UniProtKB/TrEMBL annotation, chain A:
<dbReference type="GO" id="GO:0051225">
    <property type="term" value="P:spindle assembly"/>
</dbReference>
<dbReference type="GO" id="GO:0051298">
    <property type="term" value="P:centrosome duplication"/>
</dbReference>
<dbReference type="InterPro" id="IPR045107">
    <property type="entry name" value="SAC3/GANP/THP3"/>
</dbReference>
<protein>
    <submittedName>
        <fullName>Germinal-center associated nuclear protein</fullName>
    </submittedName>
</protein>
<dbReference type="GO" id="GO:0005819">
    <property type="term" value="C:spindle"/>
</dbReference>
<dbReference type="GO" id="GO:0005813">
    <property type="term" value="C:centrosome"/>
</dbReference>
<dbReference type="Pfam" id="PF03399">
    <property type="entry name" value="SAC3_GANP"/>
</dbReference>
<feature type="domain" description="SAC3/GANP/THP3 conserved">
    <location>
        <begin position="14"/>
        <end position="305"/>
    </location>
</feature>
<dbReference type="GO" id="GO:0005634">
    <property type="term" value="C:nucleus"/>
</dbReference>
TrEMBL record, chain B:
<dbReference type="GO" id="GO:0000973">
    <property type="term" value="P:post-transcriptional tethering of RNA polymerase II gene DNA at nuclear periphery"/>
</dbReference>
<dbReference type="InterPro" id="IPR036388">
    <property type="entry name" value="WH-like_DNA-bd_sf"/>
</dbReference>
<dbReference type="GO" id="GO:0070390">
    <property type="term" value="C:transcription export complex 2"/>
</dbReference>
<dbReference type="GO" id="GO:0016973">
    <property type="term" value="P:poly(A)+ mRNA export from nucleus"/>
</dbReference>
<dbReference type="GO" id="GO:0006368">
    <property type="term" value="P:transcription elongation by RNA polymerase II"/>
</dbReference>
<dbReference type="InterPro" id="IPR000717">
    <property type="entry name" value="PCI_dom"/>
</dbReference>
<dbReference type="InterPro" id="IPR045114">
    <property type="entry name" value="Csn12-like"/>
</dbReference>
<dbReference type="GO" id="GO:0003723">
    <property type="term" value="F:RNA binding"/>
</dbReference>
<dbReference type="Pfam" id="PF01399">
    <property type="entry name" value="PCI"/>
</dbReference>
Amino acid sequence: MENTEYIRGSCERFCPDAEAKMRTQKKLLNFFEYKDGQKHVPGVLVKEFTRSAADAKVPKAKDMRTEHCLTKTIEYLLKDIFLDERKPYHLVYDFIFDRLRSVRREIVIQQYNARQTIRLIEPMIMFMAYSRYRLCEEPIDKFDPKICNQHLQECLNVVLCSYDELDEEGQTTSETKPTIREAERRYFIEALYQIFNLGTPEALVRGLMLPAQVRENENFKLAFNICLNYHQGNIYRVMKGLPKLPHIICAVAGAKLQTIRRLLLEIFTHAYNNKQLTVPAAYLLHLTLLEPQLLNEQCRHYSIAQTPDRKALHFIKSDFKSDVETIRVQRETFIDEKLSRVYLPEVLLLKKLWI
Amino acid sequence: MFGTVNNYLSGVLRAAEDYDGDNLGTLLSLRDVHVQNHNLYIAQPEKLVERMLKSPLDEVVGSHLKVLYYLAQEPPNYMDAYNHQAASCSAVVKLLQQLKDENWCLPLMYRVCLDLRYLAQACEKHCRGFTPGHILEKAADCMMACFRVCAADGRASEEETKRLGMMNLVNQLFKIYFRINKLHLCKPLIRAIDNCAFKESFPLPEQITYKYFVGRRAMFDSNYRMAVDDLSYAFTNCPDRFTSNKRLILIYLVPVKMLLGYLPRKSLLERYDLLLFHDLAVALKAGNVKKFDEIVHEQELVLIRSGIYLLVEKLKFIVYRNLFKKVFAIRRTHQLDMGDFLSALQFVGVTDVSLDETHCIIANLIYEGKIKGYISHAHNKLVVSKQNPFPPLILT
C-alpha cells in the first residue's frame, strides 16, 4: 500500500514545540528533562506518551517527528538517558518506557512500512528485555513485570509480522532483500522471541516455519533447540544450553529459570524418591546453575530435606510442596557477568550484537 | 445457453418461493456454471434486483452479482469481490433472522460462507497491504454472525431449527482457525456443539470433519487419549473411496497412537503411502535413538508441513524408554547400573551424551510414570519395581 495517504511528521526535535511550551509552562517536566544540575531550567525534552482520545485532535504534521528524528530520539534515550546514573534504574526505565511508547504511537499513526517499523521497534524490544531482567527483584510498586512482558510481546509480534511481510515481498521483488546487518538483527530477535516464549507450541511452530537462512543461523539454532528440548522434556539440555545464549537473550532466559528449576526439582523428587538415600548437592548445583545458599533457599521453599552439613539432599516425593508459588525471578551471577562484558547502549541499539 | 439477468433472477425467485434451499445455494454459488454468464456481470445491479426480489434476499443476490462483476475483471479484483461476498453474507444473516421456525435456507448459508472463505484465501494469496491472516479472520467474523443466529434458534422444533447448521459452520471456522494458527478460538465452538442436545443428528460427513479437527486440537493440547478417540472415529467412518481424506486423518492418528504405545501395521501404511511412519515405528520399537533422530532430520520438511513435527519429537522419550527396557531385559535384575544405560545410548550411536544426562532422562521417565522405580545416586543404580517396571504406555 502507498504511504501517501497518511500524515508524515515534519518535526525534527525530540519534542514538538507546542508540547514543549505547554509542559514547560505548566511545570510538567520529568527529572531527566531538566538541565543537568539546575533545578528550573529545561534541558532536552522528549515527547510524552498520550492516549488517543475522542476529544483529542488528529495530530498535525508538525506535532509528529520525522523518521530520522524518531531514530535519533531512540538513540538519545537508550544511550544518554540509559547511562544516566543520577536516579535509580527503575525511574530511568519509567522515563524511557513512556517516551518509547510515544515513538511507537507515531509509528502507528504515520503507518510506517515494515522495514521502517522493524528498525524502530527492534531497539525497544532489546530495552524491555534487558529491563525485565535488570528490575526483576524490584517490588511491584517500582516495576511491574507483567506490563513489561505484555508490551514486550506486543512489540515482538509487530516486528515478527513485519519480517513475514518482507519475506513475502522478497519472493516477488528482489530489492527488498535484507542487508547482512538487518539479517543479523533479525536472527537475534527471532532467537529472543523463542526464549521469551519458551514452552509455548505457537513459538515452536513459528520457529519451524521460518526461512532456511534464519533456521540455519547458529544463535537461532541454539535458542530453538533449547525450546525443543524443553518441549521434549529434556531439562538437562535446556540447562546446559541456557548459559551459552548471548547477553540479552540470556537475560530473557533468566526470567524462566525459576520455573525450569522447580520442574527439575519436582522431577527429581519422583526419580530419587527414597527415605534412606541422598543426592549430593554438588550434582544439583551443577544442574540448576545455582549457588549453594540459593539452593538452600529452594530446598526450604519446596520442602526438600537436606543433610545437616547441607552437602546432600533427601528427595521425598510426598514432601514436595507442589502448591506453593514458584520462587521469584532473581538476578543470576552468570547473566550479570555476561551483561557486564558488553557496552549496553551499543547492544540495545543492535549496533554490535555478537562479541 | 445462458439467459438474461431476468431469467436468472426469476430462477432465484422460484427457488425462494419453493423453499428450495439447495437450488438457491447453487444459484448463489461461485462454482456454478452461471458464473460464466457475461450477462450477469453488472457493477450496480441494485435497481434490477430490487424489482424482482424482496429484502433481504435482494441484497444477497445483488452483492453476489457484484462479486461476479469484480471476479470477471482482468486481473480479478479479489479484494472488492471479497468485500461484496462479505456483504452478501451479512444479508444472509438478516434473511436467517427473518425466517423464524424455518431452516430450508441453510444450504444457501453454507454456500455463501464457503465462497467467502475461498475468496478470503484468494485475497491472502494475491493481495497485499494487510497482515497475513487478517482477511481470513474477518471472514471468520462474518461466519460467526451466522453461527450466532443458528445457535440462538432454540425454540424451533428439532427438524426446523437452524441449530442444525451449526456443525457445518463450525467446520468452516475450524478450517480458518487452523490455517491462521489461532486454535484457542476453537474452544467456544466445541463447547457449543457439545451442549447441543441432538449432536448425533448432524449429517455424518459433517461429523467426520468435525471429529477430525477436534482430534487435531486435542493433539495440540497434549490431550492424546481424546485425540485418538476423535481421530479414530473420523477414520473408521470416513468411506474408503475418500483415500486422500483417510490419509490426512492417518497423518495425525498414527503418531498419536504411537505415543500411546500402538504401532501401525505396515500394510495399512503402505496402502496410504505413509511408509515414513513405518521407519519411525521400527526405530521406536528397537529403541534406536540415533536412527530415530536421523529419520526425523531427513523427513523434517514433510513432518513440519504436515504439522506433526512437534508430536514426533515427543516420541523421543518413548524411544529412550524402549531402549532402556531392552537393557532391563538383558540384565534381568532389578538393580540396574546407570552406566549400562549410558552404554546402550552409546551403542546405538548417540555420542554426545553424558552420565548426568542419562540420569536426567531416566528421572524424567520415572516422573512421567514410564518407568516404575527410583534412582540411587550414591550407587549409580536404577532400582526398578518388581511388578511391571515398564508399564504399558497406555497406562502412563
